[in-house]
Amino acid sequence: MNWLNEGEPEDRLLQQELLSGGELPKHIAIIMDGNGRWAKQRRMPRIEGHRSGVGSVKDIVKACGQLGVSYLTLYAFSTENWKRPKTEVTLLMDLLLYYLKTELKELNENNVRLNAIGQLNALPKNVARQLHESIDYLSDNTGLTLTLALSYSGRWDILRAVQTLALDVRRGTLSPEDITEEKFRSYLNTHDIPDPDLMIRTSGEMRLSNFLLWEMAYAEIYIAPVFWPEFRREQLYEGLWNYLGRERRFGKISEQLLDETGCER
Ligand code: FPP
């Protein structure tokens, strides 16, 4: 099923308006938060929140694909999430496995490349195997790069990078004076994807929760008031309009940006 031939006419119009509204973010990173609270509000078990959250994942991936967003990174399971009750962890892993198996064909038909960051060898064997198989299967695609952060935390990645870098210094293959920002970046799990332009967090919480700490240096942050299962394409569009209204100065002043672009922003 090709996503570009699909969709309600009203939705296509909304996407057209967004596309002509300015430069959309190349990389969107999302902290999917509030599945448990969404379920609790409805007196349902927490896992129902996660299950409904998979619906949001599908809709957001599809909308990003249709809009031509290049990179989407989803914080699906943090290092800290291993501390949750075993039953919830197992069910989350099952949901991930289900997603990877059932969406593979559609992701491929829509030119999506899959990527994963985090301590992947900590995942259950069947999940890790399916993940690697899916990544391989989709590796020649050139459209949206969907990155799943799994057993991931920003500090874990920074520490791991520092350890590898220190080993290279000890081996003599790297001099301390050559450790630039670019060099350091090349040691991170995210070395082959650009920094996020926009970070979205759902459920109204204003925390980074150990997500992409190095990479988020200049990301615009958008906090959506709804729980993740309620975050569908309409809510994404709101976040994108909000982003389009921002002035990204990267530490400079407005007048300098005007000089560089030659037009008002
Ligand atoms: C946060 O809600 C959500 C998670 C920890 C897991 C997110 C997982 C999914 C949406 C499903 C599987 C993922 C993919 C990519 C198919 P929470 O449980 O912390 O909610 P709460 O703060 O309300 O308790």
Report what the structure shows.
The protein is α/β, with parallel strands linked by helices. It has one domain: Undecaprenyl pyrophosphate synthetase (3-Layer(aba) Sandwich), CATH 3.40.1180.10. The protein is built from nine helices and six strands, in the order αβααβαβαβααββαα. Strands 3-4-2-1-5-6 form a six-stranded parallel beta sheet, with helices on both faces. β3 (113-117), α5 (125-137) and β4 (145-152) form a beta-alpha-beta unit. The longest helix is centred in the middle third of the chain and has 24 residues, at 86-109. The protein is globular. The mean pLDDT is 95. The structure holds farnesyl diphosphate. Farnesyl diphosphate binds at residues 32-37, 50, 53-54, 57, 74, 76, 81, 92, 95-96, 99, 148, 228.
Keywords:
binds farnesyl diphosphate, 13% strand, 6-stranded parallel sheet, Undecaprenyl pyrophosphate synthetase, alpha/beta, globular, single chain, 265 residues
Counting structural domains, the number is 1
Mean pLDDT: 95
Arrangement of strands in the largest sheet: 3-4-2-1-5-6
Beta-strand level of the residues, as a percent range? 5-15%
Give the CATH topology.
Undecaprenyl pyrophosphate synthetase
Largest sheet properties: 6 strands, parallel
Number of strands: 6
Q: Poorly predicted ranges (pLDDT <50, ≥5 residues)?
A: none
What does the radius of gyration come to? Answer: 19 Å
State the share of residues found in helices, binned by percent: 40-55%
CATH superfamily: Decaprenyl diphosphate synthase-like
Q: Estimate the global geometry from the Cα principal axes.
A: globular
The helix tally amounts to: 9
How does the helix and strand content classify structurally?
A: alpha/beta
Question: What is the terminal-to-terminal distance?
Answer: 38 Å
| Series of secondary-structure elements, N-terminal to C-terminal | HEHHEHEHEHHEEHH
Going by CATH, the architecture would be: 3-Layer(aba) Sandwich
Q: Could you tell me which ligands this complex binds, including any ions or cofactors?
A: farnesyl diphosphate
CATH C-level: Alpha Beta
